[in-house]
C-alpha cells in the first residue's frame, strides 16, 4: 500500500479549507448491490473539490477504479458562490476542473452552502438555488442528474418541506441522501424513504472527517484506518449493505489524500477477498434500484425531532415540538367518541386540534395519506401551548382504532402519548354505522338491508363488501387493541366502557382525568346535565342554558331485528371471548355488555 500522498502546498491548502470548506462540505459517496455469494455491489463516489493539484489525481483514480468498479464516475458537487474566491493556484484549479466538465457527473449543493432549515420561506431557498443553477448553466455544468445534497443533512430529515418544494421547482430533484434517518446510530438501522416524490437513500460513514487529513495522525493511529478497510467496519459496511453511500470532505483529498487512499484500497480488498462485483449506477437509476430491493421503506416513519439532539440541531428554530398532542382518542366510530370529545374540551387544561376542513373535527393523520404531508402539516392543527407542563393537547380520530398503520406511526412520533378507546357492544356499533351511512345517503346502505350487508358473501358487489367491512371489522376489539399494545405499554392505554360513558359520564371523566394526570381536577358532576328531550348528557352553561351534541348525534332509528342480532352475536362470539381474555390480562373490568354476551357462550 502507498501510505502517504503528501503534495506541495498541502499545508497551505489547510488554511484555504478553513475558510472555504467551512462553508462548502464536500462529498465522496459509494453505493452497492448484493445478489448472493458471487453477488454485486453498486458503487458511486461523489466528491467536491476545486484545487489544481488534485485534478490529475482525480482523473487517474477514476480510471483506476473503473478497472474494479463498472462504470465508475466521480459525481462532483458545486456551490457557485465560492468560484474564484481562493488563491491564484486554487482559481486555476477551478478553471481546470470546469474545463473537463464532461469527465464527471455533477450535482448541486446550496449556492452559499447555507443550511436549508435556516430559510423559513420557500422563496428564499428558491432564490439561492436559482443562483447556483445560473452558475451551472454559465459553465456548462449538467443540471439534469436529478440528485442534490443539503449541507449537514439540513432539511432532508427532519423534513424541511420548503427544501423539498424548492428542489422540485428549481432542479427537478428526484434523489438525495442522509445519515440521519431514522438516526445516525446505530448505522445498521439507517433506512431510505420517499417524500414529495424525492427518494431519500441512507448514507453511511467511512471514518474520514474534515480533521482526518494525515495518515500518521489518524485517530487511534494508521492501523485503525487500515483495520477498518481490511476486514473491519468499512469493509463490512460494503459487504452487508446492498447499497452504501459514503461521504468525505475536501481536506481528505489534499494533504495525504486519505479519501483516495481509503476507497482505492477498499476496492482492492473487496476484490481480493470476496466474490462481490462492484459497479456504479447514475443516481436516479440507483434510487429506483434501491426501492425495488426495499419497497417496504418507501413510506417514512416520522419521529419527534426534539428526541434526537442531532435532529434538533438541523430543525428550524421557528418550530416547536410542544405542538404535538399528549394523548389520542382513537375510536372506534359510533361508540361515543364525539361525546367524549365534547366533555374533554370542557376541561380548562385540555385543548383539541383545530377542525380539519376535509374530515370534520378529525385530523386523521396517522391512518390516511395525510401522514405523507409530514409533521409540519400535522402540528399546524395545534396551538402553541401557553404552559407546556399543564396544557394537554389532544386529537380525536375515530378511524385510528382499527387502522393497521396508525399504532406504529403514532408510537414513532409521540411514543409517550396516552391512548383512549371506547368500547360498546360491537353488534350495536355495526348497526349504528349502517344507520349513519343511510343518513348520509350512502348508496349501498340505501340499496341493501342491514342483514344483506352483514351476511354478504365474497362475490357480493364491491360497494356492498366495502360497507360490510366498515360495519364489522372495527368490532374485532381484541385484535385492534393488541395491535396498539404492540407499540404502546398498557400503562398508556385507557379502555372506556361506552355504556357507562352514556349513563354516568361524570364518573368516567374522573377516571379519564386521573389517567391523564391533568390538573386542576374538573368537577363534571356540576358541569353536566341530562337532557331528557335529546336523551344524552350536555354541558351546563350559565343561566341554565346547555350545550349539546349536534342534530346528527343521538339520532333515533328502528331497533335492530332479532335475526340480525342473532347473526352478529354469533359472528362476534370468538372476538368477544378474546376480548375478555385480554381485559383479564390487563386487569380491566369487563363491561356489562360483554358479560351479557359471554353468558350466551356458556
Automatic annotation (TrEMBL):
Keywords, sorted A to Z: Disulfide bond, Glycoprotein, Golgi apparatus, Hydrolase, Membrane, Multifunctional enzyme, Signal-anchor, Transferase, Transmembrane, Transmembrane helix
Predominant localisation class: Golgi
MF GO annotations: deacetylase activity; heparan sulfate N-sulfotransferase activity; hydrolase activity
Enzyme category, top tier: transferase
Hydrolase among keywords: yes
Domain Heparan sulphate-N-deacetylase deacetylase as annotated: residue spans: 56-235
Record-annotated disulphide pairs: 538-548
Pathway where this protein functions: Glycan metabolism; heparan sulfate biosynthesis; Glycan metabolism; heparin biosynthesis
A Pfam family assignment: Sulfotransfer_1
Family: Belongs to the sulfotransferase 1 family. NDST subfamily.
Protein name: [heparan sulfate]-glucosamine N-sulfotransferase
